[in-house]
Inverse folding.
């Protein structure tokens, strides 16, 4: 029975088996450079990189007071209203306290709790307990819900014990680091003598990782591309830091020749091409991939295929998908004269569906420029991902699919620095679950068979994103990248 309950809990989460969180170690593997001793440049705390330290100093240093009442001396935090709803990091508190239980998970209600005593001797009723998820996904357990409290308190002693972390206070900010790995797990800023940590905020999340990590997560794009992503704007993007994988992938760093889109709506015109044959079959035994690019938003779809002629059935299935998911019809398809697009079967399909086929002259790939440029971008990104992850060549398919995922979420100057994703779905992409390709990831094991003492999180290597909004693909291995 316990097993059943567990399974249904996981099903609620969608692709729960793959729901994973990344170890900070995999993401934040910036080497420490201790030889630099320039005043103010080197981080005084082991485990925090110089870049991270400098970013925090820049972001939190010399903050101006914003609220008038902030100037009043604060000695009793329980009586003060913190309108921002931030966590106050309190070394005097013995419990975590929150006043808004909407922010809690797994709530347990009841008046069974002893009341909280505040410094003036008064007691305030506790209405229940729950869990709070930190911006990095870590769980703070046993948070007391006290509705009459006017601020949220994070107890340093509980935090240090429960998360096995060190909390270090600087003049303008404080950091929490995992005791074993030294990885940064939280950061708070100091405002008018109080150390505070924001609730879930994308800016704060971005600060948790360095720009270098985002460069890797997003498939090694140029700094100027990163500067167009809203939550990365506040991080210095004038980084000229050396990226070995970019050099190896022969990134030209030059913008692709700009071509204008000729359509008014998504799926009015699709550009298609097949890439291959590649000499090494992929992990899934593919030798080719079919690329479909939407002319308006430049969104790209890639299908790994074993034989060139599979491209036709892929295209037919794609048309069906568009009709069901987007309630649209493809109006025109542009491709070269390849037999996979011009067979009798395909000509029948175009006629039946009312699609106009536009073919380009043989040996003039520039006529099929949109998809040619997309291939170049896909392959450069895929190569950088492969070099960064240090993967064998047979994983080229996973690299290309991951490149497709990130490119759809990167701003493009052809569409005024919007992302293909937002032109397609009318909403901004969610970067929350993005990880560095090839990093160590943990996935929830479903093989527990109700046994409470079996390991729940098992290590794997992050291999990209499956279709659908949640989850990750991972390769399970007991050894690290073998
Ligand atoms: Zn790079």
């Amino acid at each position: 029975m316990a097993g059943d309950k567990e399974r249904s809990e996981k099903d609620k989460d969608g692709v729960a088996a793959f729901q994973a969180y990344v170890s900070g170690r995999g993401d934040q593997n910036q080497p420490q450079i201790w030889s630099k001793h320039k005043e103010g440049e080197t981080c005084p705390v082991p485990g925090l990189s110089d870049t991270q330290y400098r970013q925090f100093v820049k972001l939190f240093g010399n903050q101006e007071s914003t609220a008038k009442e902030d100037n009043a001396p604060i000695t009793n935090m329980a009586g003060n209203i913190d309108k921002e709803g931030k966590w106050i990091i309190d070394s005097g508190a013995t419990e975590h306290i929150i006043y808004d239980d909407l922010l809690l998970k797994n709530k347990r209600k009841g008046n069974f709790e002893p009341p909280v005593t505040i410094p003036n001797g008064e007691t305030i009723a506790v209405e229940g307990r729950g869990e709070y998820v930190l911006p990095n996904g870590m769980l703070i357990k046993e948070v007391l819900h006290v509705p009459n409290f006017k601020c949220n308190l994070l107890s340093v002693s509980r935090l240090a014990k429960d998360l096995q972390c060190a909390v270090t206070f600087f003049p303008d900010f404080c950091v929490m680091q995992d005791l074993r790995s030294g990885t940064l797990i939280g950061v708070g800023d100091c405002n008018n003598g109080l150390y505070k940590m924001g609730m879930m905020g994308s800016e704060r999340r971005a600060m948790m990782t360095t720009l270098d990590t985002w460069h890797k997560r997003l498939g090694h794009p140029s700094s100027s591309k990163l500067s167009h992503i809203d939550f990365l704007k506040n991080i210095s993007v004038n980084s000229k830091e050396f990226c070995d994988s970019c050099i190896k992938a022969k990134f030209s760093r030059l913008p692709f020749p700009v071509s204008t889109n000729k359509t008014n709506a998504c799926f009015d015109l699709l550009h298609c091409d097949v890439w291959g044959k590649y000499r090494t079959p992929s992990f899934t035994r593919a030798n080719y991939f079919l690329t479909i690019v939407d002319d308006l938003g430049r969104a790209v779809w890639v299908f790994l295929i074993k034989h060139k002629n599979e491209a036709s059935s892929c295209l037919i299935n794609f048309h069906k998908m568009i009709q069901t998911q987007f309630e649209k019809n493809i109006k025109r398809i542009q491709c070269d004269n390849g037999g996979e697009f011009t067979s009798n079967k395909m000509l029948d399909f175009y006629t039946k569906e009312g699609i106009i086929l536009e073919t380009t002259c043989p040996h003039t790939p520039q006529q099929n420029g949109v998809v040619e440029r997309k291939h170049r971008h896909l392959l450069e990104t895929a190569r950088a991902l492969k070099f960064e992850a240090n993967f064998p060549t047979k994983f080229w398919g996973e690299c290309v699919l991951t490149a497709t995922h990130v490119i759809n979420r990167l701003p493009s100057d052809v569409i005024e620095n919007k992302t293909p994703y937002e032109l397609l779905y009318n909403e901004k992409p969610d970067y929350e679950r993005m990880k560095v390709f090839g990093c160590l990831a943990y996935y929830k094991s479903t093989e527990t068979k109700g046994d409470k003492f079996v390991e729940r999180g098992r290590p794997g290597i992050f291999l990209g994103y499956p279709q659908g909004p949640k989850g990750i693909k991972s390769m399970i291995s007991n050894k690290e990248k073998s």
